[in-house]
């Protein structure tokens, strides 16, 4: 997905990460690289200039927060500006409460049947997306019904039924009836007594210049009064998405946008940025042809993946929510390689609270290299290690070197594990001590701060 943009952004970042000194010339170079990357992804020129202007001004004028290096601060600025660009851009930012919309949540009323009106230009992939959305919603516990009201495209109802049959979603349609408004009324009546939570309405693909279809859309909107209106946009059209999204938004109060065909397109960044500029949220992105190739869109995690940094925001939020207190003495011990088994245990406790899988998946540099099966093994080991350390005496916690065969057997019995598990823990503890002692650099210090230890 957006491989070209991803590669160009990472190349730009490498110059900052590998630089021995951060100066204005290097920042100017970063801005130029960023401009080339975004323009190649078909992002609007005005937005590109705005983001690079903000990046340069903030990088030169802002003082990094205490404990954060200049490099880290610049990367954080870039991360934030790109998230803003792909989340809510232009004038729309001023009118949207980002605290409520940043997570792109969909709100459904649990006390009634909810309706989703699906709109889009012909050829945008709307009918296929309906099946993908039905699949996504059903995986989240909703029962789905679909109304096929696209009376313009031959075979639309057949395609809809075929796609929805794969996920056991019931489809209402009337072959031969060209009155879309009547079909919708009849469909709503049909699903009134059916055990469904959400009704998705497929409509004819239309263009911003086709006044007849736009009028039909407005009438349908007034009849249905939908809970949600989703607009499907083809990601290959790039920044042209702005005009499409704008005209639909003005006519039907779009509550969310779904961007399709992002796999392999160079213009996807432009489509996301342009759509966001309308003020309607980008809710989902299509990433492939399979029924499950639809993912919920989050600007921050999307940017993190583009930069190869994981979802930094998610990790920092988890740490903030836990209000992990700084322990300077513990940090000094860790950095000097004098870590005790209790320090080691404290780190596991913090990681456990944040969710070990979340930490690894969101940690810069590790998210791309640790496989799911490895995560499961590490998670299981850490669960065992917790119980093992709880079975240590105070003397053993202070000095694990005193643990002999007899002590090892007692610890294994007390924690309900095998003796080799106790050996494995001590080996890992010693390896960690050595690693901490060797990694006395900013990178390790920054990592410790993220765990609340700096």
Automatic annotation (TrEMBL):
<comment type="function">
    <text>Involved in targeting and insertion of nascent membrane proteins into the cytoplasmic membrane. Binds to the hydrophobic signal sequence of the ribosome-nascent chain (RNC) as it emerges from the ribosomes. The SRP-RNC complex is then targeted to the cytoplasmic membrane where it interacts with the SRP receptor FtsY.</text>
</comment>
<dbReference type="InterPro" id="IPR013822">
    <property type="entry name" value="Signal_recog_particl_SRP54_hlx"/>
</dbReference>
<keyword id="KW-0687">Ribonucleoprotein</keyword>
<dbReference type="Pfam" id="PF02881">
    <property type="entry name" value="SRP54_N"/>
</dbReference>
<protein>
    <recommendedName>
        <fullName>Signal recognition particle 54 kDa protein</fullName>
        <ecNumber>3.6.5.4</ecNumber>
    </recommendedName>
</protein>
<dbReference type="InterPro" id="IPR022941">
    <property type="entry name" value="SRP54"/>
</dbReference>
<dbReference type="InterPro" id="IPR003593">
    <property type="entry name" value="AAA+_ATPase"/>
</dbReference>
<dbReference type="Pfam" id="PF00448">
    <property type="entry name" value="SRP54"/>
</dbReference>
<feature type="binding site">
    <location>
        <begin position="202"/>
        <end position="206"/>
    </location>
    <ligand>
        <name>GTP</name>
    </ligand>
</feature>
<keyword id="KW-0547">Nucleotide-binding</keyword>
<keyword id="KW-0342">GTP-binding</keyword>
<dbReference type="InterPro" id="IPR042101">
    <property type="entry name" value="SRP54_N_sf"/>
</dbReference>
<feature type="binding site">
    <location>
        <begin position="120"/>
        <end position="127"/>
    </location>
    <ligand>
        <name>GTP</name>
    </ligand>
</feature>
<dbReference type="GO" id="GO:0003924">
    <property type="term" value="F:GTPase activity"/>
</dbReference>
<dbReference type="Pfam" id="PF02978">
    <property type="entry name" value="SRP_SPB"/>
</dbReference>
<feature type="domain" description="SRP54-type proteins GTP-binding">
    <location>
        <begin position="113"/>
        <end position="308"/>
    </location>
</feature>
<keyword id="KW-0963">Cytoplasm</keyword>
<dbReference type="InterPro" id="IPR000897">
    <property type="entry name" value="SRP54_GTPase_dom"/>
</dbReference>
<feature type="domain" description="Signal recognition particle SRP54 helical bundle">
    <location>
        <begin position="1"/>
        <end position="86"/>
    </location>
</feature>
<dbReference type="GO" id="GO:0006614">
    <property type="term" value="P:SRP-dependent cotranslational protein targeting to membrane"/>
</dbReference>
<feature type="binding site">
    <location>
        <begin position="260"/>
        <end position="263"/>
    </location>
    <ligand>
        <name>GTP</name>
    </ligand>
</feature>
<dbReference type="GO" id="GO:0048500">
    <property type="term" value="C:signal recognition particle"/>
</dbReference>
<comment type="subunit">
    <text>Part of the signal recognition particle protein translocation system, which is composed of SRP and FtsY. Archaeal SRP consists of a 7S RNA molecule of 300 nucleotides and two protein subunits: SRP54 and SRP19.</text>
</comment>
<keyword id="KW-0694">RNA-binding</keyword>
<dbReference type="InterPro" id="IPR027417">
    <property type="entry name" value="P-loop_NTPase"/>
</dbReference>
<dbReference type="InterPro" id="IPR036891">
    <property type="entry name" value="Signal_recog_part_SRP54_M_sf"/>
</dbReference>
<keyword id="KW-0378">Hydrolase</keyword>
<comment type="similarity">
    <text>Belongs to the GTP-binding SRP family. SRP54 subfamily.</text>
</comment>
<keyword id="KW-0733">Signal recognition particle</keyword>
<dbReference type="GO" id="GO:0005525">
    <property type="term" value="F:GTP binding"/>
</dbReference>
<dbReference type="GO" id="GO:0008312">
    <property type="term" value="F:7S RNA binding"/>
</dbReference>
<dbReference type="InterPro" id="IPR036225">
    <property type="entry name" value="SRP/SRP_N"/>
</dbReference>
<feature type="domain" description="AAA+ ATPase">
    <location>
        <begin position="112"/>
        <end position="289"/>
    </location>
</feature>
<dbReference type="InterPro" id="IPR004125">
    <property type="entry name" value="Signal_recog_particle_SRP54_M"/>
</dbReference>
């Amino acid at each position: 997905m957006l491989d070209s943009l991803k590669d160009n952004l990472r190349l730009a970042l490498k110059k900052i990460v590998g630089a021995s000194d951060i100066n204005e010339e290097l920042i100017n170079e970063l801005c130029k690289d960023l401009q080339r990357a975004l323009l190649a992804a078909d992002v609007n020129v005005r937005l590109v200039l705005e983001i690079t202007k903000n990046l340069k001004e903030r990088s030169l004028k802002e003082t990094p927060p205490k404990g954060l290096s200049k490099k880290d601060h610049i990367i954080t600025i870039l991360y934030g500006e790109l998230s803003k660009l792909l989340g809510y851009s232009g004038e729309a930012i001023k009118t949207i409460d980002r605290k409520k919309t940043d997570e792109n949540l969909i709100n459904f009323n649990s006390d009634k049947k909810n309706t989703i009106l699906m709109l889009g230009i012909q050829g945008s992939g709307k009918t296929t997306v309906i099946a993908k959305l039905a699949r996504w919603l059903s995986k989240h516990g909703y029962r789905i019904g679909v109304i096929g009201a696209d009376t313009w495209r031959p075979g639309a109802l057949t395609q809809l039924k075929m796609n929805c049959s794969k996920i056991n979603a019931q489809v209402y349609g009337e072959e031969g009836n060209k009155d879309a408004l009547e079909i919708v009324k009849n469909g709503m009546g049909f699903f009134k007594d059916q055990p469904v939570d959400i009704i998705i309405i497929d409509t004819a693909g239309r263009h911003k210049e086709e006044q007849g279809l736009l009028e039909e859309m407005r009438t349908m909107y007034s009849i249905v009064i939908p809970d949600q209106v989703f607009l499907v946009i083809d990601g290959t059209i790039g920044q042209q998405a702005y005009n499409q999204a704008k005209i639909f938004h003005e006519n039907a109060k779009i509550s969310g946008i779904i961007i399709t065909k992002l796999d392999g397109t160079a213009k996807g960044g432009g489509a996301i940025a342009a759509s966001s500029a309308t003020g309607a949220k980008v809710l989902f992105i299509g990433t492939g042809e399979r029924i499950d190739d639809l993912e919920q869109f989050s600007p921050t995690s999307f940017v993190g993946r583009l930069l190869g940094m994981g979802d930094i925001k998610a990790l920092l939020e988890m740490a903030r929510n836990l209000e992990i207190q700084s322990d300077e003495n513990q940090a000094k011990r860790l950095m000097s390689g004098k870590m005790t088994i209790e320090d080691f245990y404290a780190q596991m406790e913090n990681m456990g609270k944040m969710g070990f899988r979340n930490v690894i998946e969101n940690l810069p540099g590790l998210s791309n290299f640790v496989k799911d099966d490895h995560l499961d093994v590490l998670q299981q080991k850490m669960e065992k290690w917790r119980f093992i350390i709880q079975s240590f005496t105070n003397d053993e916690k202070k000095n694990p070197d005193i643990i002999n065969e007899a002590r090892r057997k007692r610890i294994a019995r007390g924690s309900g594990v095998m003796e080799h598990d106790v050996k494995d823990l001590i080996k890992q503890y010693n390896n960690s001590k050595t690693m901490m002692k060797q990694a006395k650099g900013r990178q390790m210090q920054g990592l410790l701060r993220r765990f609340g230890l700096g």
